[in-house]
Structure formats: C-alpha cells, structure tokens
Write a structure and sequence with these properties.
Blueprint lengths: L2 H9 L4 H7 L4 H9 L6 H10 L3 H18 L2 H15 L3 H26 L2
Helix pairs in contact: 4-5, 5-6, 6-7
Amino acid sequence: MNENTLQELEAAGIDVTAGINRFLGDDSIYLSFLLRFPQEESFGQLESAIQQSKWQEATEYAHALKGLCGNLGLNKLFQICSDMVTAGRNGEEMQIAALYQDVRAEYETICSVLNGKGNS
C-alpha cells in the first residue's frame, strides 16, 4: 500500500494500522477486503429491516456490520453500530431508528472514499 493511499484512508477516519494488524500485517489482503466493503450486504439488509420496522432483524444486521467494521478498522461506524445493537437489545426502537441515520451517513462517507480508491 503506498503512503498516499494510507494517508488518505487514515484522513477518512479508517484505522489502517489496526486493520492491517488484524490481517497479520498483510496490507495487500487488508486493502482488498477494505475495498470490497461497499459491496458487503449487511448495510443493505440493515436498511431494509429499518424500513420495514423489523427491529430484531435490524439489531442482528447492525451486529454483523459492527463486526465487519471492527475487523477493518472502521472505528466510528463500529461505535455507532455498537450503540445500535445495545439499543436493539434494550428494545429501544426509536433509538435504533435515530442511530440508523448516523450509520447511513458514516457508511456513505466510507464508501465514497473507498470507491475512489477502487477506481484509482
């Protein structure tokens, strides 16, 4: 991974160093997984569950997305998803819906950055 790419990803709030460490120091494998993040299905499933007011399913998809974000060093999205999972486990449906807006905004930001990297 070149230094410019690393700096751009870190400037976008991605903890590249932690992510690479989770991939046993192999930055090329990490980057390949990171660049596939926008195609991962958990966000779309979460969005669909929210739109249908299926709160238990939304909690499960938020949990799946949280795990993926943790592995890839997407710390801000990880924390928001973690909060959403907690709200879901506590039956706080309005809080899940409110946090979804934050999840969506951060997800779109990350995907915008990563889609730019995948095209370069």
